C-alpha cells in the first residue's frame, strides 16, 4: 500500500489526497504537521531531503513531487491518465505547466492574503501588483482552453484538473480575480469543487488556514437521513384553501408523497455556496436587535439591517423588505391554512418554493404598482433570509434542494385559494437525484439567504425548493423550531422562528432579451403557462450554448429600399407615422438582435445564411385594423416603397420575418391584429386574425370547454394564418392546413379589399363552412405568393373522435425505409394510418434530448454510424435507424382493430419493434408527439437546436410519391450531400394522404461564416439533385426561392409566366413582397435580383426600373 506523508492544509498535499481519492487508490495517510515544522525533522528528511510536502513511499520507491505521485498512482486508471500517447501528453503538459508557471503565480496571492494575516502581518500590495499581469496572462490561457472543453483535456476529468485547481483551492481568501474568466470559474466552482473527493479535503484546509471559517463548522455529522414531504403530480390541480367552503372538501392537497432523503451538512464548504449556483448561501450576520415579539420595532429597527445586509451580499441597488413571519412552538397546533395572524406560523414540513414564474412578477406589481413595469423590464428577485434569534437551533432545521439537482420539470404549481384571490407556489415531485443541504446548530450570528424567484433566465438559480425536516441528530428535549418559506430566525429559549420576504430589483443583466419568455395571454405571441417551464428550459439551453453575440452592430447603416432616396424615404415614413401613430411606425436603425423562437426579431433573419444585413428591413409598421392595412398599402403605392407582410414572423428556417428585398418595410400584422373573431362549436369552425397562434386558439377552446381539437404543427407558437398560407401541416387527421381553411379576407396590392368563397355574399352564414362559393376559386393565388395580404381566415376544427392512442415502432436498418414506405402507403390511403405521421431518422432521437453534439461525438463530419448506434443502445429505443411515430383515433375497440393491422404489417420487416410507451420516461420525446397528434400544442421541438453552438436550422422540403424507391432516392441525395459538407443528417418523412414530404432540417452554427457557406452549398446542390429526378420542394427559405421556382419550368416556364402576369395585373407598382416565392414584379425583373443555383454574396440586384407613365392605381 502506498504510504503518503503530508499536511492536508497545504496546496500540494491537498492535491495529492484529492487526486488519490478520485483515482480510487488505496493509501495510508501519515500526518506531517507543517506548522510545527515536522517536514524538517530528521525522520521526514530521510524520506524527502528537500523538506517539501507531500512525499510517498511504495516499497523501496520514494516519490517527492506531488504531480509525480499522481502520475505514479494513475498509471492504470484509464481516462484519468490515458494510455494513448497523445492524450497522456496533453495531461502531462498541464501538470508541468501547473508546477512551473501556475503554482508560483497563485502562491503569491496565497502568501499575501492568507498566510500573512495568519502571522499577524499586512499583505504587501506591491508584490501583488507586480505579479498580477503574469497571473492574468496565465488565467487567460486557462480560460481559453476551458471555453473549448468541459475539463482541461476533454470531456473527462483527469489528474491534470486536480493539479491545476489546487493552487486556487482558497480562491476567495486568496482574492483571485476569477470574475474576468467565466470558463475558468465555471470549471473550478461548478465542476472541481463539486467533486466529493475535493470537498472531503476542505475541512482540514479551513481549520488550518481559515480559522474564521472553521469557527462556523459546528461539529455535527456530515450527512443524515430524514423524510421530506414531496407532492404527487396528478391530473387534478394541487390546491390549498385558506377558508372553509364546499370546494375545499374535494381537492388534491400537497405533501402526499414522503420520501427519505440524504441531507448533507454544508458547513464544511460554507463559503462556496452561492445564491446564483446552488440557490442559497450561508454567512455571518450580527445584530444588537432583540425585540422580536414587537412587530413595529422589527419593521422600524431590524428591517433596515436586512436591507444593508442584502445590498452588501447580493449587489442589489435597491432592496425592499415587505413581510416577516414568526414561528413558535405555541403555534404547532395552528393550521397552515389559518386565515388570521399569519405572521405567527408553525414549521412548514413541505418541499416547496414561495413563488412561480408567474406569481413572482404579479407580486412585484402588487408591491410596486406604478414602478412595476420599469422594474420588470430589468432584473428582479425575491430572497428569504433565515437567522436564529438567541441560541443554537437544534430542531427542525431548514434544508435546501441544490438547484443543480432540481430541473424546472421537477416543479409544478400549488394553487393557494383565498377568499379574494388565488396565489401560486411551487411544490416538487420526488426525484432520487435531488441533493439536499442543511446547516445544523445554527447560531445567532449565522444566516441563510435563499432565492425564491429570479427574473433572469440565463442559467443561474431561479427557484429553490426548501423544507423543514425532523433532524434525527437533535437531542430529545430540543424545542420545536419550525420555518416559514421566508427568512427564519430561531430561538431555543423562546422557541420561535422569524421570517422576512425580500424583493430586490434594478440589477444589470447580461441578456438583452426579457428575463422571462413572453406568456399568453398577457402577450398575444406568448407561451401558455402550462408550457412555460419548457420555454424557460429551452431558452436557458440556447443561451448557454451561444458564443455569437445576440446583438449584431450595424456596419451598413439604415437599409433604404431601392428606387427611393434616404431623405425622401424618411419623409414618407414620417407621413405614415402621422396617420398610424408614431408608436406604430418604427425605424430599423438599431443593432440587430437575434432573439430566439419566442422572442423572434421582425427586423432580419436571425437564422442568417448570408450576412445578417443582407435580408434586413428599413422599418416596421403595426396596423391595428384592416383599414390600417389599406392605408399602409396605398402609402407604399404612392411612394413606391416595397412592403413585406408577416403574420407573426416565426417562419424560422425559411427566412423568419426577413424580407427578400433589402430595405423593405415590414408590415407586422400580428401585434395588433390578433383576435379570435369566432369559434362555432356546432360547425367546428373558427375565424381568426393573423396574430392568433396555435397556442392561443387551443387555450381559448379549452377555456370555453369545447370538445374540439387544434391541428397543430411541431411548435404551436406560429400564426395559424401564416402557417396555412405556407402550406404547413399538423399531425391530427386534419393535417393539411390549406385543405381545412375556408374563406379569406384579403387586402390587394392596390389597397382594395376582397373576401373569397361565400364571404363575397353579403349576409352569408357559410363563409367558414363552404370553401368554394361561386365561380373560379381564387383562394389559392394568395398562398405562397405576393398577390395580397390576408387579414382574416376561416379554419375547420376537428371534433374529439372519442380518444386517441399514439404508438411507435423502430426499424434496425437504413434500407428498411424502402419496404416501410411501401407498407405505409396502402394503410395511409385506406385511412388505417390516419394522421400525418412521422418517420424519423434515428439521429434525431439523440438530438431531441437537448444534449450537445459534443456529448456524443467530437469529431468532424457526420456522426459515424457506429457512434450513433452505440449511444442509441443506451436509450429506451435501442439500436435502430428509423422511428415511426403514429397515432390511432376513435374509441378503444376501434383503435385496437386498426393497431392490430398496423402491427401485423409493420412486423413484416425483420427486426421491427414496437416500443411500449409505458417503458418510456415521462420526458421522452414520444409524449410530446402524442400530445401534438391529439390536438394539444407542445414545446419540445426546439431541443435539437442545442446540437451545435449558436444553433439555427434550414429546411429542405421536397415532395415525392409515397413509394419506397422514391423515398430511398431522396434520402440518398440528402445523405450524400450532407457527408460532402460535413453536416449531420436530421431527416423526417411526413406521410400525407398520397404524398410524402421529406423534411430535412439542416442544423448549423449561425455564428460561423464557414458553416453558413457549407449549408448554403449543400442546400443548393440538393435542390438541383432532387429536381433532376423529378422531386420539387413545396416550401423553402427565401434565399432559395428563385432557384426552386426555376425548377418548376415545364413548357418554357409557363407557370412562372402565368404568375408574373398575375403579379403585374394585381400589383402594377410592384410594392408587395417583391421576389417572394421567386415572383418578381416588372420593376425588378431582369435586373439581377434573382439568385440562381450558383448562389452569391449579395441579395440585391441592380436597382429598379423607374415607374412607367401607365402605372397607376
UniProtKB/TrEMBL annotation:
Ranges for domain FAD-binding PCMH-type: 608-800
Keyword Iron among UniProt keywords: no
Protein name according to UniProt: FAD-binding PCMH-type domain-containing protein
Matches recorded under InterPro entries: AsaB-like, Cytok_DH_C_sf, FAD-bd_oxidored_4_C, FAD-bd_PCMH, FAD-bd_PCMH-like_sf, FAD-bd_PCMH_sub1, FAD-bd_PCMH_sub2, FAD-linked_Oxase-like_C
UniProt family annotation: Belongs to the asaB hydroxylase/desaturase family.
Highest rank taxon of the organism: Eukaryota
Feature: compositional bias, Basic and acidic residues: 1092-1103
GO terms of molecular function: FAD binding; oxidoreductase activity
Region (Disordered), start-end ranges: 1092-1113
SUPFAM superfamilies the record matches: FAD-binding/transporter-associated domain-like, FAD-linked oxidases, C-terminal domain, GST C-terminal domain-like, Thioredoxin-like
Pfam family, one: GST_C
Domain GST N-terminal: 1-81
Key words, A-Z: FAD, Flavoprotein
Protein species of origin: Fonsecaea multimorphosa CBS 102226
Amino acid at each position: 500500500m502506498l504510504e503518503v506523508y503530508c499536511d492536508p492544509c497545504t496546496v500540494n498535499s491537498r492535491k495529492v489526497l484529492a487526486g488519490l481519492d478520485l483515482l480510487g487508490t488505496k493509501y495510508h495517510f501519515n500526518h506531517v504537521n507543517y506548522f510545527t515544522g515536522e517536514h524538517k525533522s530528521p525522520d521526514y528528511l530521510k524520506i524527502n531531503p528537500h523538506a517539501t510536502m507531500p512525499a510517498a513511499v511504495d516499497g523501496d520507491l520514494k516519490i517527492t513531487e506531488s504531480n509525480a505521485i499522481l502520475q505514479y498512482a494513475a498509471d492504470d486508471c484509464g481516462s484519468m491518465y490515458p494510455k494513448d500517447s497523445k492524450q497522456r501528453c496533453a495531461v502531462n503538459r498541464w501538470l508541468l505547466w501547473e508546477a512551473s508557471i501556475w503554482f508560483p503565480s497563485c502562491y503569491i496571492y496565497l502568501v499575501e492574503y492568507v498566510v500573512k494575516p495568519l502571522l499577524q502581518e499586512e499583505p504587501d500590495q506591491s508584490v501583488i501588483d507586480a505579479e498580477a499581469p503574469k497571473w492574468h496572462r496565465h488565467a487567460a490561457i486557462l480560460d481559453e482552453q476551458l471555453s473549448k472543453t468541459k475539463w482541461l483535456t476533454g470531456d473527462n476529468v483527469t489528474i491534470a484538473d486536480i493539479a491545476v485547481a489546487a493552487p486556487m483551492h482558497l480562491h476567495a481568501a486568496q482574492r483571485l480575480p476569477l470574475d474576468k474568466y467565466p470558463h475558468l470559474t465555471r470549471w473550478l466552482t461548478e465542476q472541481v469543487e463539486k467533486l466529493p473527493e475535493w470537498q472531503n479535503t476542505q475541512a482540514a484546509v479551513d481549520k488550518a488556514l481559515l480559522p474564521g471559517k472553521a469557527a462556523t463548522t459546528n461539529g455535527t455529522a456530515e450527512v443524515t437521513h430524514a423524510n421530506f414531504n414531496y407532492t404527487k403530480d396528478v391530473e387534478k390541480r394541487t390546491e390549498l384553501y385558506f377558508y372553509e367552503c364546499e370546494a375545499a372538501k374535494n381537492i388534491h392537497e400537497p405533501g402526499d408523497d414522503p420520501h427519505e432523503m440524504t441531507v448533507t451538512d454544508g458547513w464544511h464548504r460554507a463559503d462556496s455556496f452561492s445564491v446564483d449556483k446552488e440557490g442559497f448561501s450561508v454567512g455571518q450576520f450580527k445584530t444588537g436587535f432583540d425585540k422580536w415579539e414587537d412587530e413595529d420595532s422589527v419593521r422600524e429597527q431590524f428591517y433596515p439591517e436586512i436591507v444593508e445586509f442584502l445590498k452588501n451580499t447580493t449587489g442589489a441597488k435597491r432592496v425592499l423588505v415587505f413581510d416577516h413571519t414568526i414561528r413558535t412552538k405555541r403555534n404547532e397546533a395552528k393550521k397552515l391554512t389559518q386565515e388570521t395572524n399569519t405572521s405567527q406560523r408553525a414549521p412548514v414540513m413541505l418541499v416547496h418554493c414561495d413563488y412561480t414564474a408567474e406569481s413572482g412578477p404579479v407580486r412585484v406589481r402588487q408591491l410596486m404598482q406604478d414602478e412595476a413595469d420599469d422594474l420588470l423590464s430589468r432584473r428582479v428577485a425575491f430572497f428569504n433570509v433565515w437567522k436564529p434569534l438567541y441560541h443554537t437551533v437544534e430542531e427542525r432545521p431548514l434544508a435546501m434542494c441544490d438547484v443543480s439537482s432540481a430541473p424546472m420539470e421537477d416543479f409544478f404549481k400549488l394553487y393557494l385559494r383565498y377568499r379574494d384571490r388565488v396565489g401560486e407556489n411551487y411544490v416538487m415531485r420526488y426525484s432520487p437525484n435531488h441533493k439536499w443541504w442543511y446547516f445544523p446548530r445554527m447560531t445567532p450570528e449565522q444566516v441563510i439567504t435563499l432565492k425564491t424567484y429570479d427574473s433572469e433566465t440565463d442559467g443561474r438559480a431561479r427557484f429553490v425548493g426548501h423544507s423543514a425536516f425532523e433532524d434525527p441528530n437533535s437531542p430529545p428535549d430540543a424545542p420545536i423550531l419550525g420555518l416559514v418559506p421566508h427568512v427564519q430566525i430561531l430561538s431555543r429559549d423562546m422557541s420561535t422562528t422569524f421570517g422576512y420576504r425580500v424583493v430586490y430589483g434594478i440589477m444589470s443583466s447580461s441578456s438583452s432579451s426579457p428575463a422571462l419568455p413572453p406568456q399568453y395571454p398577457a402577450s398575444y405571441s406568448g407561451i401558455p403557462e402550462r408550457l412555460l417551464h419548457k420555454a424557460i428550459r429551452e431558452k436557458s439551453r440556447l443561451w448557454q450554448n451561444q458564443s455569437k453575440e445576440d446583438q449584431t452592430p450595424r456596419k451598413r447603416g439604415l437599409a433604404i429600399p431601392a428606387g427611393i432616396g434616404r431623405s425622401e424615404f424618411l419623409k414618407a415614413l414620417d407621413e405614415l407615422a402621422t396617420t398610424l401613430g408614431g408608436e406604430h411606425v418604427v425605424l430599423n436603425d438599431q443593432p440587430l438582435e437575434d432573439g430566439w423562437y419566442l422572442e423572434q426579431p421582425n427586423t432580419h433573419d436571425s437564422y442568417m445564411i448570408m450576412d445578417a444585413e443582407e435580408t434586413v428591413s428599413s422599418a416596421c409598421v403595426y396596423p391595428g385594423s384592416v383599414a390600417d392595412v389599406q392605408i399602409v398599402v396605398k402609402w407604399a403605392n404612392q411612394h413606391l416603397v416595397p412592403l413585406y407582410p408577416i403574420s407573426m414572423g416565426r417562419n424560422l428556417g425559411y427566412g423568419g420575418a426577413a424580407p427578400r428585398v433589402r430595405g423593405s418595410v415590414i408590415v407586422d400584422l400580428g401585434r395588433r391584429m390578433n383576435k379570435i373573431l369566432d369559434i362555432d362549436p356546432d360547425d367546428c369552425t373558427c375565424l381568426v386574425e393573423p396574430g392568433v397562434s396555435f397556442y392561443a386558439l387551443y387555450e381559448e377552446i379549452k377555456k370555453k370547454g369545447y370538445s374540439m381539437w387544434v391541428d397543430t404543427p411541431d411548435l404551436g407558437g406560429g400564426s395559424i394564418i401564416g402557417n396555412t398560407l405556407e402550406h404547413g401541416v399538423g399531425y391530427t387527421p386534419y393535417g393539411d392546413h390549406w385543405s381545412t381553411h375556408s374563406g379569406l379576407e384579403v387586402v390587394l396590392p392596390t389597397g382594395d379589399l376582397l373576401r373569397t368563397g361565400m364571404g363575397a355574399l353579403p349576409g352569408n352564414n357559410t363563409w367558414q363552412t363552404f370553401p368554394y362559393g361561386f365561380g373560379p376559386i381564387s383562394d389559392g393565388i394568395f398562398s405562397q405568393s405576393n398577390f395580397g395580404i390576408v387579414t382574416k381566415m376561416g379554419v375547420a376544427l376537428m371534433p374529439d373522435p372519442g380518444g386517441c392512442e399514439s404508438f411507435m415502432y423502430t426499424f434496425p436498418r437504413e434500407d428498411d425505409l424502402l419496404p416501410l414506405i411501401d407498407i405505409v402507403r396502402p394503410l395511409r390511403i385506406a385511412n388505417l394510418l390516419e394522421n400525418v405521421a412521422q418517420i424519423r431518422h434515428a439521429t434525431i432521437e439523440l438530438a431531441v434530448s437537448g444534449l450537445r453534439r459534443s456529448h456524443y461525438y467530437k469529431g468532424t463530419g457526420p456522426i459515424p454510424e457506429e457512434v450513433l448506434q452505440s449511444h442509441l443502445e443506451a436509450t429506451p429505443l435501442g439500436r435502430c435507424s428509423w422511428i415511426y411515430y403514429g397515432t390511432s383515433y376513435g374509441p378503444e375497440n376501434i383503435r385496437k382493430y386498426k393497431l392490430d393491422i398496423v402491427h401485423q404489417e409493420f412486423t413484416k420487416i425483420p427486426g421491427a419493434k414496437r416500443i411500449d410507451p409505458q417503458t418510456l420516461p415521462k420526458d421522452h420525446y414520444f409524449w410530446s408527439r402524442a400530445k401534438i397528434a391529439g390536438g394539444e400544442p407542445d414545446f419540445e421541438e426546439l431541443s435539437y437546436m442545442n446540437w451545435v453552438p449558436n444553433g439555427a436550422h434550414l429546411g429542405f422540403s421536397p415532395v415525392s410519391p409515397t413509394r419506397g424507391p422514391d423515398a430511398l432516392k431522396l434520402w440518398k441525395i440528402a445523405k450524400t450531400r450532407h457527408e460532402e459538407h460535413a453536416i449531420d443528417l436530421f431527416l423526417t418523412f411526413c406521410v400525407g394522404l398520397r404524398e410524402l414530404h421529406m423534411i430535412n432540417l439542416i442544423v448549423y452554427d449561425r455564428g460561423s461564416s464557414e458553416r453558413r457557406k457549407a449549408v448554403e452549398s449543400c442546400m443548393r446542390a440538393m435542390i438541383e439533385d432532387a429536381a433532376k429526378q423529378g422531386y420539387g420542394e413545396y416550401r423553402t427559405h427565401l434565399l432559395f426561392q428563385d432557384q426552386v421556382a426555376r425548377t418548376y419550368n415545364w413548357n418554357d416556364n409557363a407557370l412562372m409566366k402565368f404568375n408574373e402576369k398575375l403579379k403585374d395585373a394585381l400589383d402594377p407598382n410592384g410594392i408587395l413582397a417583391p421576389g417572394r416565392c421567386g415572383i418578381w414584379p416588372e420593376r425588378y425583373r431582369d435586373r439581377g435580383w434573382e439568385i440562381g443555383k450558383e448562389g452569391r454574396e449579395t441579395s440585391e440586384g441592380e436597382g429598379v426600373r423607374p415607374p412607367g407613365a401607365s402605372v397607376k392605381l
